[in-house]
């Protein structure tokens, strides 16, 4: 048999086998096709293989190589057809594949728990119509005290309770150090933002302000000289303490849970009258979360509002306290440590 | 404020159990801090807010209990015999410092026998933590804890020339106080002196020379009013805070001064004998009634949201010591007529009651805040998120996706941290007078040093290479000589980040976040020299189309990194968050997608070493037309043998695509030709084929 005939027979065989395998519509017909082409006894490939003996010795090498190629191709075509009928499983996957090995995780960073808390608070208050307002952290005494009805002889202005700034650029020290107060200080409360908002807008006003405040407390598990407050302010023609209590109750139910109760205790803040401490009953204990009250008429007068025409309420809640309660954080200092072992838990 | 149940029961019947009582007090303004039993006495610790100086004595607390439980207060009757000897023959008082001492009163008692005070008084004082001294001093303390008015007893024999002078301290003057320490007096200190020298620091502490001892027989009893600010400043300056200064800082009852003086005379003569000289020296005139305040009942519901009936209002205000009267208000149409208003003269001990709002609070707290409903919603109003918050939320998304975690670090830093690096300004940082933490006084001018410190702390504690960011204010000091509001720092939000040693990874994060914020202009860099950054490794960041500096990015100086005991290198960046927000386009606009195939062409140019990618890409972009849809840098390599010194090969790919037609190969060729020609001409480039 000439090499030419042998090769064309092989080509024919390959194309017949491939079309037969790919045309098989189920495993029975595929098996029939397999017997026809690859059957060990009377398969067509076996027949062609036998013809190799009749090839001229000089052509045998080329013929053998082609024979192998065709054999592989037919086998592949059979396997492919078989897999296709079986739904693609099987030998595509290495038998040593262990799907229970851990996944390869992308390295993701973490958002600080205080930011998460602030976002959450902003979202809850946003649903009640409060928008975010901001002001500077370095304030003048007028915004931090005077406009908030805190007169000069008030203990809240004591230098020991505030971070007054040293007067800059004066040779030979700080001329105001003797009297204690300075021209600027790190704000001790976010209530300063109330003043800035009321100076620049007319009622109705509904804002919250979240930000850093500063008081010289010695750091321990529950105190840090820098912390965050959420200040709320609502000013309109008709606003009552019942509205204040309702807003704070709705807030507490949203943030801490449906079963949380709220209670007011009388207190004293120069910028509200009446003034109250706000307690939430949580897990059977009354916990103080902040202060609140009706905006003092003197504050309205300081910003040029007529206290006979408008009313308002204000509240300030400690963000850390809310965040720590919610996440079970026991030491406030962890929040400001920058320790990744802490941060990556949130 | 510590009170004992038995002491309170001298003025009011305690009809409630302990737990009920402290609960009612907490919910009406005297917060219960704790209770304990000392020597059989139940001692209750109450928090008194700074406006309620009247509750810094047992009578004040008893008055609160009385109004809560519907009882009248039982005040002791003061009676003592006066001797015919007139006080004016025994003592002279001159007040030369009325700014600090509006009223000074004195009485004289002669012939007392100083000794121990009786058992009941010692027990009462000890149970609330007051040390027992002798029967005279104990009485002054007892009366102070009874009514809140501090008193002082001088040994009359030690008062030179029988003259008391209230005056400012003199230059260089010193006083040995009863604690036997010497205190400097200044012209701001209010001093009680005799004709020769200082005897006491007014309202703060008495002096050793005139204190009452076993040998004392004649007394001067001081009852005065010292102004809060004067006492507070002196107490603070001398670091000498006493029960007396605490009370003066919260203001005393002007009418209570004489009551306390007489009460002390009564108790001293009962306990230690002696006779009280007739009359009193009082440096000020009679005490007028307080101005009446009109309370419109309609205001109660306007402020509180509940109605409280007139009888309850009247009962509460009268119980608190006000003279409240419906009848005396004149008919006034604007207030709705007399029947709806109440005229109220507050008692002299309630300095905090001056306005209608103050009376509303009194009624509310006694009536009970639990009466105020919590189902009174506010009207619906829309609110929207600030662009700043939306932008920062996206920014956090990019940075956390890039593997950075958010830190929060203190705004006030140490000199070491502040000095590490300050790319934004050379002006010295503003400082606080009081240190915040570990000597931190400086308001930070950059976030990077704080993040470097955090990275170092993470490495030191757990060998973590912390990749961190922070969004916080920095405080850029104002120019010298500015005053008023201009003297406040420029305070803006910055975004700081610190990462490992891959400059381009960090730059990529910044490029990515610009894209995510819809800032489409090219990020431009200019090499700058900044302390704390590696020389040549720092760049100022700008965005095409804006002239302001967006921020700084760079490799930190090796020396700085090593000073924090950190291995390897660090890359840090700081951006102005406010500029990011100002430039952001948070609402993406759809761009047309071409339905025609694109053609990619790779080019390999040999360039002078000095040609940076930004100038190369600029030339390419201006030489190509709008059909250059993407230009991507591939790599740079150098082969001096083939290309000569100071030459480099830069590989890049161009994606070419038209919105309107299928580009042919020759279209692409002509664009490439234009690019190559421009690069040859402007950059001395040679195309490698």
Write the layout of secondary structure elements.
The complex is a heterodimer of chains A (346) and B (689).
Chain A: H1 3-23, H2 27-38, H3 44-51, H4 60-86, H5 113-127, E1 131-132, E2 138-139, H6 141-144, E3 163-164, E4 185-186, H7 191-200, E5 205-214, E6 226-236, H8 241-255, E7 261-269, E8 272-282, E9 285-295, H9 297-302, E10 311-318, H10 319-327, H11 340-343
Parallel strand pairs in A: 1-5
Antiparallel strand pairs in A: 2-4, 3-4, 5-6, 6-10, 7-8, 8-9, 9-10
Chain B: E1 2-4, H1 5-8, H2 18-26, E2 31-38, E3 41-47, H3 58-69, E4 82-86, E5 92-95, E6 103-110, H4 119-127, H5 135-147, E7 151-155, E8 163-168, E9 174-176, E10 182-184, E11 190-193, E12 198-201, E13 205-206, E14 219-225, H6 228-238, H7 243-249, H8 256-272, E15 275-278, E16 281-282, E17 293-296, H9 297-304, H10 310-319, E18 323-325, E19 341-345, H11 356-367, H12 387-401, E20 405-406, E21 412-413, H13 415-420, E22 442-443, H14 448-462, E23 468-476, E24 490-499, H15 503-516, E25 523-528, E26 533-543, E27 551-556, H16 558-563, E28 571-576, H17 577-583, E29 599-608, H18 613-623, E30 628-637, H19 640-643, E31 647-656, H20 665-683, E32 686-687
Parallel strand pairs in B: 4-15, 5-8, 20-23
Antiparallel strand pairs in B: 1-3, 2-3, 6-14, 6-15, 6-16, 7-14, 8-11, 9-10, 11-12, 12-13, 17-19, 18-19, 21-22, 23-24, 24-28, 25-26, 26-27, 27-28, 29-31, 29-32, 30-31
Helix pairs in contact in B: 4-5, 5-8, 6-7, 10-11, 12-15, 12-17, 18-20
């Amino acid at each position: 048999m000439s090499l030419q005939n042998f090769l064309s027979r092989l080509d024919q065989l390959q194309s017949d086998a491939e079309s037969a395998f790919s045309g098989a519509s189920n495993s029975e017909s595929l098996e029939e096709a397999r017997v026809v082409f690859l059957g060990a006894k009377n398969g067509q490939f076996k027949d062609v293989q036998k013809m190799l003996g009749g090839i001229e010795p000089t052509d045998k090498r080329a013929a053998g190589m082609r024979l192998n190629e065709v054999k592989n191709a037919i086998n592949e075509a059979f396997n492919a057809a078989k897999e296709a009928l079986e739904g693609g499983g099987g030998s595509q996957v290495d038998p040593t594949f262990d799907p229970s090995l851990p996944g390869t995780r992308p390295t993701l960073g973490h958002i600080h728990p205080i930011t998460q808390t602030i976002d959450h608070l902003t979202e809850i208050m946003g649903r009640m119509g409060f928008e975010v307002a901001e002001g500077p952290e370095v304030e003048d005494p007028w915004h931090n005290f005077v406009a908030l009805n805190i007169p000069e002889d008030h203990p809240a202005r004591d230098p020991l309770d505030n971070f007054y700034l040293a007067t800059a650029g004066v040779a030979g020290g700080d001329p105001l150090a003797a009297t204690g107060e300075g021209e600027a200080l790190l704000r001790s409360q976010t209530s300063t933002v109330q003043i800035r908002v009321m100076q620049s807008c007319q009622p109705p006003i509904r804002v919250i302000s979240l930000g850093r405040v500063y008081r010289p407390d010695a750091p321990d598990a529950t105190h840090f000289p820098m912390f965050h407050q959420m200040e709320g302010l609502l000013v309109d023609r008709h606003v009552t303490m019942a509205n204040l209590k309702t807003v704070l109750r709705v807030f507490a139910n949203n943030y801490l849970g449906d079963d949380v109760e709220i209670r007011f205790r009388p207190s004293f803040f120069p910028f509200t009258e009446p003034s109250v401490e706000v307690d939430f009953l949580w897990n059977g204990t009354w916990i103080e979360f902040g202060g609140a009250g009706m905006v003092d008429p003197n504050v309205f007068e300081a910003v040029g509002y007529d206290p006979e025409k408008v009313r308002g309420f204000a509240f300030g809640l400690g963000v850390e306290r809310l965040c720590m309660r919610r996440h079970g954080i026991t030491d406030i200092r962890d929040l400001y440590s920058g320790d990744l072992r802490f941060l990556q838990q949130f | 404020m510590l009170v004992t149940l038995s002491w309170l029961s001298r003025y009011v019947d305690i009809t409630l159990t302990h737990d009920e009582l402290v609960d009612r007090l907490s919910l009406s303004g005297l917060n219960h801090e704790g209770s304990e039993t000392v020597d059989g006495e139940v001692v209750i610790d109450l928090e008194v807010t700074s406006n309620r100086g009247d509750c810094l004595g047992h009578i004040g607390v008893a008055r609160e209990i009385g109004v809560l439980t519907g009882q009248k207060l039982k005040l002791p009757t003061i009676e003592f015999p006066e001797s015919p000897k007139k006080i004016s023959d025994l003592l002279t008082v001159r007040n030369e410092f009325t700014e600090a001492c509006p009223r000074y009163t004195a009485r004289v008692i002669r012939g007392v026998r100083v000794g121990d005070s009786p058992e009941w008084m010692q027990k009462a004082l000890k149970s609330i933590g007051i040390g027992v001294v002798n029967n005279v001093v104990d009485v002054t303390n007892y009366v102070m804890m009874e009514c809140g008015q501090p008193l002082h007893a001088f040994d009359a024999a030690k008062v030179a020339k029988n003259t008391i002078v209230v005056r400012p301290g003199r230059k260089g003057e010193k006083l040995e106080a009863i604690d036997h320490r010497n205190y400097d007096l200044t012209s701001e200190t209010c001093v009680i002196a005799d004709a020769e020298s200082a005897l006491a620091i007014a309202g703060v502490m008495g002096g050793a020379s005139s204190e009452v001892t076993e040998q004392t027989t004649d007394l001067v009893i001081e009852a005065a009013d010292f102004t809060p600010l004067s006492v507070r400043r002196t107490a603070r300056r001398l670091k000498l805070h006493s029960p007396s200064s605490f009370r003066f800082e919260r203001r005393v009852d002007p009418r209570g001064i004489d009551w306390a003086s007489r009460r002390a005379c009564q108790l001293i003569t009962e306990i230690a004998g002696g006779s009280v000289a007739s009359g009193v020296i009082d440096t000020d005139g009679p005490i007028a009634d307080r101005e009446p305040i009109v309370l419109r009942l309609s205001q109660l519901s306007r402020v509180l949201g509940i109605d409280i009936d007139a009888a309850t209002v009247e009962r509460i205000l009268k119980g608190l010591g006000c003279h409240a009267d419906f009848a005396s208000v004149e008919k006034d149409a604007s207030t709705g007529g007399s029947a709806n208003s109440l005229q109220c003269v507050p008692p002299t001990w309630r300095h905090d009651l001056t306005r209608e709002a103050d009376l509303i609070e009194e009624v509310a707290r006694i009536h009970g805040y639990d009466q105020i409903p919590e189902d009174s919603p506010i009207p619906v109003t829309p609110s929207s998120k600030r662009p700043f918050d939306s932008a920062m939320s996206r920014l956090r998304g990019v940075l956390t996706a890039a593997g950075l975690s958010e830190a929060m670090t203190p705004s006030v830093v140490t000199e070491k941290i502040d000095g590490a690096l300050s790319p934004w300004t050379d002006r010295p940082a503003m400082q606080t007078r009081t240190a915040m933490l570990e000597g931190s006084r400086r308001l930070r001018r950059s976030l990077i040093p704080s993040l470097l410190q955090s990275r170092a702390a993470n490495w030191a504690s757990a060998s973590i290479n912390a990749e961190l960011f922070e969004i916080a204010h920095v405080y850029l000091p104002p120019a010298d000589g500015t005053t008023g509001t201009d003297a406040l720092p420029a305070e803006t939000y910055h975004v700081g980040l610190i990462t490992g040693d891959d400059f381009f990874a960090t730059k990529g994060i910044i490029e990515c976040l610009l894209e995510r914020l819809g800032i489409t202009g090219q990020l431009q860099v200019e090499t700058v020299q900044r302390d704390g950054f590696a020389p040549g490794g720092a760049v100022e960041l700008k965005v095409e189309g804006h002239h302001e500096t967006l921020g700084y990015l760079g490799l930190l100086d090796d020396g700085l990194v090593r000073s924090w005991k950190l291995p390897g290198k660090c890359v840090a960046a700081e951006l102005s968050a406010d500029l990011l927000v100002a430039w952001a386009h948070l609402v993406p606009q759809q761009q047309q997608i071409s339905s025609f195939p694109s053609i990619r062409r790779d080019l390999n140019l040999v360039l002078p070493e000095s040609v940076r990618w930004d100038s190369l890409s600029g030339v390419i972009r201006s030489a190509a037309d709008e059909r250059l849809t993407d230009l991507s840098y591939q790599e740079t390599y150098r082969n001096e043998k083939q290309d000569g010194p100071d030459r480099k090969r830069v590989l890049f790919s161009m994606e070419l695509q038209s919105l309107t037609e299928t580009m042919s190969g020759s279209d692409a060729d002509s664009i490439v030709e234009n690019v190559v020609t421009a690069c040859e001409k402007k950059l001395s480039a040679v195309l490698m084929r």
